[in-house]
Design a protein that fits this description.
single chain, alpha+beta, PH-domain like, 6 domains, 8-stranded antiparallel β-sheet, 6-stranded parallel β-sheet, 34 helices, elongated, repeat
Length: 829
C-alpha cells in the first residue's frame, strides 16, 4: 500500500512506530490459513513517504463478516487524515470473505464437464515472484474442464491446467465474494497456491461448487472403504456416505448409485462377513434403495442373503419395497438379469416362511392394488419374466445335460446325437432322414434297456424303445422346422418318460406355477398374460413333465372361460405352422390328461366367438375328427354342433366318414335332435336355392334379422342377384341366411349394424360377390381384412367405417379386380 499525503496537509513525521503498530493490529484481525503476512517498511531517502507492502496467497474470512481494511484505517484518529492511494500487492490481499452457503431448495445437475475461466495463484517465495503474481500481470484462461473420478483435468492441458489437479490435493473448496473483483468465483485450495474458477453466473458457480465437493468426497470414501480395518468404523462411514447422498443438492442418477456401487464393491471384496454385519450394512443403505435399483454386485449379495436367511426380517422390511420398485419400474430384465434373479430369490424366500404361498399371494395382491385395474403396466410383464426364468431354471441342468437331450440343431437336422453319448430319447420328427431310421433299426437291445439318467436335480427313466412307432412323414421338399407337438410326440420311450425333480427344484416349480395361476385370476391381467404365453415360452422338457402341465392346466382353463376374444384367441398358435395351447391340451396332445373336457371348452369358446369358420372346421376335421366324434358320442353338445356344421358346410368329402358322423349323431338324444334340425335346414336350403324368384330385392327400412329370415323362407330365391338391406336393423346374425343365396352378386348393407363376424362369414361363402356396400357400418380392420378372399369384388364402399390406411393398402394388393373404392371419411382417405 502507498500512503500519500493529503492536499494541504503537512508531511508525516516520526510515524514509523505507529505504522508498525497498526500493521500488527491489522494483521491480527485477518485470519490466514496457509501463509502469514510479511511486513516490510521502507522509507525513501529525502521524502516522508512510507511504503507498506503486504503480500499473501490465501486470505480467508471467518464465518462472521469481518470489518474491511478501510474500516480499520478510518478508526485511527492519526491516520484519518490519510487516504488509500494505490494497492500494488497481489490480489489476494484484497479483503475477501467466504459466501455463506444457503440451502434454499435449489437443485443442480451433477457436472461431468464444462467451460470455465481458470486462474492459478502460486505462493510468492521471492521478490520477483511477488511481482509476477501481482494483479496487473495475472490473467484468466478459458478451459474445458472434466470432472473425472479422481482428478480435475482440462481438455487442452496447457497453461494453468497443464497438469490435472487430483482431488486428494484439494484441501478445501470455497465460494468467494470479492469487493471490486470478478464475480462468481470459486476457490480451490491446493498445496503451494490457489486455483480460482470463474463461472458465467451464480447458478453455474454453485453447480461447480457442489459438483467438485461431491467428486472430492466420493473419491475420499472410495479410498477409505477400499481397505477396511474395523467394521464398526466402516459401518459408520457407510451411514455418513448415505446421509451425504440423501442431503446433497445435486440431482442425478449417479448421486445415489455411486454410494451403492462403493458398498457393492466393498461387499464383493469381503466375503467373510458375519450375518449380523450383512444385515447392518443392508439396513444402512436401505434409504438409498427406496428410489434406486441395486447394482449387479449388490444384487448378488442380496440373493445370497435371501438363500441363506429367508426368514430374516431384513427380507420383509428392506427387500420388499426394493422388489416392488423393480417390478413397477424395470423395463427390460435382459439388460439387468441380476435384478430378475434377486426378485426370483426374494419370492422364494417369501415362500419359505411359515405361511408360505399365502405370503406370496398377499405380495402379488399388493403389486396389483386394491382396484380392478392395476395402475402399473410393467408389473405383469416383469412377474411373468421372473416366473418363466424360474421355471426354466428347474429344468436347466436337464436341458444342459449331454446325456438326456439332443441339441436344437440336431433336432432340426433330424438326426440323433453322436454315438459316444449315452442313449438318447429318439424323437419323432417331421422330416426324418434315412440315417435316422437306419440308426434306430440297428440299435442293440442292450443299449436301449431301462436306464436312469441322473443330474443333480432330475432323474429320468427311459423304457425300451422296441415298440417304437414309425415316424410321421411329411411332403418332400418341405424344409420347415418341426413343430413343437412333433418334437414332443416321441416314441414310447418318451411317451412313458417320467421326470422327477429334486426337492428344491420341485418347490421352485410349485411356487412359480402357483404365481401364474394367481396372475390368471385377475381379469385385467388375463389378456396380457394370454398374449405373453401364446408362443409357449416353456422348454419342451417342462411340457413333457406331467406335474407341470397338470398344474398349468388351470391357467389354460381360465383362458378358455374368458369371453373376450383377445384372451381365448391366444389358445391358438401364434402363426401358421406352429402349435399352440389348443393343440397341446387337445386329445392326443402331450399335455392332455383328461377325456377332452378342456378341449371341448376351448372349442366351445372359439366357436362362439369368431372362429365358426370353414377353415377352423376343416382343421378340426383333419386333425381332431376322432376326438370330436368320441366326445359327441358321450353327449357333449359342443362336439355335436361341430359335427353338424361339418355336414352342413360340406367339410367332409368321404361318404363313409359322413355316414359314420351321422351314426354318431343319431346315437344320442341331443345329437339326433340337432341332426333332424340340420335335415330340415337342408330341405329349406334346397327350396331356397331352387331356380326362380326375383333377381332384385329390397327390404323395407327398420327390417330385422327375423324379417329377413321369414322372407327367405317363404319361397325360392335361386335367381336373386341384387339384395339391398340399406337402412335396416339387420346385424351380423343375418349372415347365416345370406350365405345360402348362391347367385348373389350385389349386396347393400348401408347404415346397418352388420359387423366383423358377419363379414368373415360372407367372405368364406359368397366368393362370387362383385359389389359390396359397407358405408356407415361398424366394421373394423379385423373384418375388412377377410374381404381379401373375395377375388371377384369390383366395387367396394367403405365410406365412414373404421378402415385404416394399412388395411386399405392390403386390400388393394389382394383384390385384383377392384375398380371402384370409396374410402371417404376414413383414416385411409
Amino acid at each position: 500500500m502507498f500512503w500519500s499525503r493529503g492536499k494541504g496537509q503537512s508531511p508525516l513525521k516520526g510515524c514509523r512506530g505507529q505504522t508498525l503498530a497498526f500493521v500488527m493490529q491489522f494483521n491480527a484481525c485477518l485470519h490466514t490459513r496457509v501463509s502469514t503476512y510479511r511486513r516490510t517498511f521502507t522509507k525513501q531517502k529525502g521524502t516522508d513517504l512510507g511504503v507498506l507492502m503486504l503480500s499473501t496467497v490465501e486470505v480467508c474470512g471467518c464465518e462472521e463478516p469481518k470489518p474491511r481494511a478501510e474500516h480499520w484505517l478510518g478508526s485511527s484518529g492519526y491516520f484519518s487524515r490519510w487516504r488509500i492511494g494505490t494497492i500494488s500487492c497481489c490480489t489476494a490481499a484484497v479483503p475477501c470473505r467466504r459466501a455463506l452457503l444457503l440451502c434454499n431448495g435449489m437443485r443442480y445437475k451433477l457436472l461431468q464437464e464444462g467451460d470455465i475461466q481458470v486462474c492459478v495463484i502460486r505462493h510468492p517465495r521471492t521478490f520477483l515472484s511477488k511481482i509476477l503474481t501481482s494483479k496487473f500481470l495475472r490473467r484468466w484462461e478459458p478451459h474445458h474442464l472434466t470432472l473425472a473420478d479422481n482428478s480435475l483435468a482440462s481438455a487442452t492441458p496447457t497453461g494453468y491446467m497443464e497438469n490435472s489437479v487430483s482431488y486428494s490435493a484439494i484441501e478445501d473448496v470455497q465460494l468467494l465474494s470479492w469487493e471490486n473483483a470478478p464475480k462468481y468465483c470459486l476457490q480451490l485450495t491446493i498445496p503451494g497456491g490457489t486455483v480460482l474458477l470463474q463461472a458465467a453466473n451464480s447458478y453455474l458457480r454453485d453447480q461447480w461448487f457442489h459438483s467438485l465437493q461431491w467428486k472430492k468426497k466420493i473419491y475420499k470414501y472410495k479410498k477409505v472403504l477400499s481397505n477396511p480395518s474395523r467394521w464398526e468404523v466402516v459401518l459408520k462411514e457407510i451411514r455418513t456416505l448415505v446421509d451425504m447422498a440423501l442431503t446433497s443438492p445435486l440431482q442425478d442418477d449417479s448421486i445415489n448409485q455411486a454410494p451403492l456401487e462403493i458398498v457393492s464393491k466393498l461387499l464383493s471384496e469381503n466375503t467373510n462377513l458375519t450375518t449380523q454385519e450383512h444385515e447392518n450394512i443392508i439396513v444402512a443403505i436401505a434409504p438409498l434403495l427406496e428410489n434406486n435399483h441395486p447394482p449387479p454386485d449388490l444384487c448378488e449379495f442380496f440373493c445370497k442373503h435371501c438363500r441363506e436367511r429367508p426368514r430374516s426380517m431384513v427380507v420383509i422390511e428392506v427387500f420388499t419395497p426394493v422388489v416392488q420398485r423393480i417390478l413397477k419400474h424395470n423395463m427390460d430384465f435382459g439388460k439387468c438379469p441380476r435384478l430378475r434373479l434377486f426378485t426370483q430369490e426374494y419370492i422364494l424366500a417369501l415362500n419359505e416362511l411359515n405361511a408360505g404361498m399365502e405370503v406370496v399371494k398377499k405380495f402379488i395382491q399388493s403389486m396389483h392394488g386394491p382396484t380392478g385395474h392395476c395402475p402399473h403396466p410393467r408389473v405383469l410383464p416383469n412377474l411373468v419374466a421372473v416366473c418363466l426364468a424360474a421355471i426354466y431354471s428347474c429344468y436347466e441342468e436337464f436341458i444342459n445335460s449331454r446325456d438326456n437331450s439332443p441339441s436344437l440343431k440336431e433336432i432340426r437336422n433330424g438326426c440323433q446325437q453322436p454315438c459316444d453319448r449315452k442313449p438318447t430319447l429318439p424323437l419323432r420328427l417331421l422330416h426324418p432322414s434315412p440315417d435316422l431310421v437306419s440308426q434306430e433299426a440297428t440299435l442293440s437291445e442292450a443299449r436301449l434297456k431301462s436306464v436312469v439318467v441322473a443330474s443333480s436335480e432330475i432323474h429320468v427313466e427311459v423304457e425300451p424303445a422296441s415298440t417304437a412307432k414309425p415316424a410321421l412323414t411329411a411332403s418332400a421338399g418341405d424344409d420347415n422346422e418341426p413343430n413343437l407337438i412333433d418334437c414332443l410326440m416321441v416314441s414310447p420311450a418318451c411317451s412313458t418318460m417320467s421326470i422327477e425333480l429334486g426337492p428344491q427344484a420341485d418347490r421352485t416349480l410349485g411356487c412359480y406355477v402357483e404365481i401364474l395361476k394367481l396372475l390368471s385370476d385377475y381379469d385385467d391381467w388375463r389378456p396380457s398374460l394370454a398374449s405373453l404365453l401364446q408362443p409357449i415360452p416353456f422348454p419342451k422338457e417342462a411340457l413333457a413333465h406331467e406335474k407341470f402341465t397338470k398344474e398349468l392346466k388351470y391357467v389354460i382353463q381360465r383362458f378358455a372361460e374368458d369371453p373376450r376374444q383377445e384372451v381365448h384367441s391366444c389358445l391358438l398358435s401364434v402363426r401358421a405352422g406352429k402349435d399352440g395351447w389348443f393343440q397341446l391340451y387337445s386329445p392326443g396332445g402331450v399335455a392332455c390328461d383328461d377325456d377332452g373336457e378342456l378341449f371341448a371348452s376351448m372349442v366351445h369358446i372359439l366357436m362362439g366367438s369368431c372362429y365358426k369358420t370353414k377353415k377352423f372346421l376343416l382343421s378340426l376335421a383333419e386333425n381332431k375328427l376322432g376326438p370330436c366324434m368320441l366326445l359327441a358320442l358321450r353327449g357333449n353338445q359342443t362336439m355335436v354342433e361341430i359335427l353338424c356344421l361339418m355336414l352342413e358346410y360340406n367339410i367332409i368329402d368321404n361318404n363313409d366318414t359322413q355316414l359314420q358322423i351321422i351314426s354318431t349323431l343319431e346315437s344320442t338324444g341331443v345329437g339326433k335332435r340337432m341332426y333332424e334340425q340340420l335335415c330340415d335346414r337342408q330341405r329349406e336350403l334346397k327350396e331356397l336355392q331352387r331356380k326362380g324368384g326375383p333377381t332384385r330385392l329390397t327390404l323395407p327400412s327398420k327390417s330385422t334379422d327375423a324379417d329377413l329370415a321369414r322372407l327367405l323362407s317363404s319361397g325360392s330365391f335361386g335367381n336373386l342377384e341384387n339384395l339391398s338391406l340399406a337402412f335396416t336393423n339387420v346385424t351380423s346374425a343375418c349372415a347365416e341366411h345370406l350365405i345360402k343365396l348362391p347367385s348373389l352378386k350385389q349386396l347393400n348393407l348401408w347404415s346397418t349394424q352388420f359387423g366383423d363376424a358377419g363379414l368373415r362369414l360372407l367372405s368364406e361363402h359368397l366368393t362370387m360377390l362383385q359389389v359390396l356396400n359397407l358405408c356407415e357400418t361398424p366394421v373394423t380392420d379385423a373384418g375388412l381384412l377377410a374381404l381379401s378372399s373375395m377375388k371377384s369384388l369390383c366395387s367396394l364402399n367403405m365410406n365412414s367405417t373404421k378402415l385404416s390406411a394399412d388395411t386399405y393398402e392390403d386390400l388393394k394388393a389382394k383384390l385384383p379386380n377392384l375398380k371402384e373404392v370409396d374410402v371417404r371419411y376414413t383414416e385411409a382417405w
